[in-house]
Amino acid sequence: MADLDEAIQTAIKRAREAANGRHAERLVHDGPLRQTVIALAQGTSLGEHNSPPAASIHVLRGRLRVTGQDPVELVDGQLESLTHHRHSVEALENSVFLLTTVTSQHDTGSHPQIQL
Fold first, then answer.
1. pTM of the full predicted structure?
2. Kind of pairing, strands 54-61 and 79-81?
3. pLDDT in tens, 77-94
4. Torsion-angle region of residue 68: left (phi > 0), alpha (psi -120 to 50) or beta?
5. Of 9, 35, 74, 116, which residue is 20 to 30 A from 42 by alpha carbon distance?
6. Do strands 54-61 and 22-30 pair parallel, antiparallel, or not at all (unpaired)?
7. CA-based Rg of the chain, rounded to a whole angstrom?
8. Residue 62 and residue 76 in contact, taking contact as beta carbons nearer than 8 Å
């Protein structure tokens, strides 16, 4: 079991110490599901990139700007779905976020589909 508070503290410390101003640690890897804690030192960014089939960003500490089709600023506690458009993430202050992604959407049969 991952300790999220500990992961947050470690990530921001390592990001501040890193030459590139960032640190990432995968906490969950279950089939197509990934959850990664990412820390960015103030002024650091993740350059423009594509999203996986499904993704969300949950700001745990700090303030971020996410570009894409509709640029948005996010702060502590805010959760945003990442669109299928190219986007970048910039730390407006020292920040840590939880990136949740689904890398594949095929039905593995592990969860029955509900018919509505």
1. 0.84
2. antiparallel
3. 999 988 777 889 999 999
4. left
5. 35
6. unpaired
7. 15
8. yes
